[in-house]
Amino acid sequence: MQSSNKPSPSLPPMFERYRFDVANTLHRSISDLHLKEIPDLLKYHLGWVDRDGNVSQTAFSQGKALRPTLCMFACDALAGDITQAVLGAAALELIHNFSLIHDDIQDQDIERRHQSTVWSIWGIPKALVAGDAMQVVGDLTALMSMEKGVPVNVVLKVSEILTESYLEMIEGQCLDLRFETRTDISSEDYLGMVARKTGALLRSSVHIGSLIATDDEHITQAFSEFGNHIGRAFQIRDDYLGIWGDASETGKSNDNDIRRRKKSFPVVYGFEHASGIAKKELISIYNEEINEEEDVAKVMAILEDVGAPQYSAEITEKSAELALSAISGLDLPDWVDQEIGDLVNFLVNRQY
């Protein structure tokens, strides 16, 4: 299960299996908004239409829908009724995308998923409002699960898990922004931030799906722990691709993280393990605006010298092993075990 720049594994079958139901639910959630302009911005961000409102002819800008897929899969894996999980799954995708709209503003990113970001087209004020609207629609969508026959007490628990997870996500984003001005972050500091920013929503995805399927707390906690570890694996792989990935695959420039002085995991590891002239040079570069190709090349050389690519891959693989261990004691059907293995392999070795 080695993480490298070999060809990306295919998306596991689960991504296609639930895509139609999730997409239909998302469309209904956005279409129910009785507003004039905001739904158009949300549909654009989700990749359904172009900036002129024309239906998109490509799926490149629509993302993987990882969180709703995990939610639906967790419910399905435990023999639950997936029609009862679809609104919770859609809510997770809406909450995730509200965070992306805001993240793009904070990071000043002008491209996401092979298309211009919302704020870069319509401006920051409208993008902020669009993100806020997406969050509200996500909250409402989760509560609508009662219409699918989910007991009220479970719906309220789902809403609680979702809200707590995106509060953690917001806290993690604040920490991430704070880290951009510091050069004394440890790997443990970074991994703690990742557990909030990325891990919380991924953890809640499988937790919510399993909770809708069963009231067995041992099982739901095992799935939650699984989600926590795959969240770390997903983010560290993202960080690797943010520096050494292929821009044609990722949809973002592979030097953007360095130019913004983003303290991704490989960079944090570099600060911890570089020494002498290399460390001084790294600190000097990160204390200034990074505009020159030469500075980007120096940073990448230092990271490679201290083994940051290899250690990032090691952490990704270790997180994947812990994820599999978290659910290894559960009596799951063979098809579930197979697809979990495919999922973990994809997250560790993906190129986008």
Structure description:
- The chain is mainly alpha-helical and 352 residues long.
- The chain contains 17 helices and two strands.
- Helix 4 runs antiparallel to helix 5 and helix 16 runs antiparallel to helix 17.
- It is globular.
- The two termini are 17 Å apart.
Blueprint (SSEs and pairs):
Layout: H1 13-17, H2 19-31, H3 38-45, H4 66-77, H5 82-107, E1 111-112, E2 115-116, H6 118-122, H7 124-143, H8 152-179, H9 187-213, H10 217-244, H11 247-250, H12 256-259, H13 265-273, H14 276-286, H15 293-305, H16 308-326, H17 334-349
Helix pairs in contact: 2-5, 3-7, 4-5, 4-9, 5-7, 5-8, 5-9, 8-9, 9-10, 10-16, 10-17, 13-16, 14-15, 16-17
Strand content: under 5%
**Biggest pleated sheet:** 2 strands, antiparallel
> How many alpha or pi helices?
17
Distance linking N and C termini? 17 Å
List keywords for this structure.
17 helices; Farnesyl Diphosphate Synthase; mainly alpha; globular; 352 residues; two-stranded antiparallel sheet; 2 strands
Summary, kept brief:
With 352 residues, the chain is mostly helical. It has helices spanning 13-17, 19-31, 38-45, 66-77, 82-107, 118-122, 124-143, 152-179, 187-213, 217-244, 247-250, 256-259, 265-273, 276-286, 293-305, 308-326, 334-349; strands spanning 111-112, 115-116. It has one domain: Farnesyl Diphosphate Synthase, CATH 1.10.600.10.
